[in-house]
Target: Type II secretion system pseudopilin OxpG
Amino acid sequence: MRKQGFTMIELLVAMAIIATLLSLAAPKYFNNLERTREAVLRENLYLMRDAIDKYYTDKGKYPKELDDLVKERYLRAIPIDPLTESAASWKSVAPEDTALGGVYDVRSTAPNSKSGTKYSEW
Model:
């Protein structure tokens, strides 16, 4: 009478097949993850810049700091930079005429991407 079960060779073959499939899928997953973070960064920059423009249109000056956009209800909260995973890492760019306020534009402080683009120039 033979015992039911798998042999060691069958288990090793199954594990080799799984490892091969994972080695094909993992790079695509991580590339998609990077592209998703970049898409979220673009959207967050667009939303904050739009809120800054609306603030300027309504008040005739730029906000002194990013938190003014939340205090004045132009944003519910400062979005998180998906690359630095922090809402405090945004870099504010002041207008040329400092009498107009303190935040003319906003940039990410994340390091360069794998493709060499600078997130601070977006």
Q: What stands out?
A: The helical segments are 8-59, 67-71.
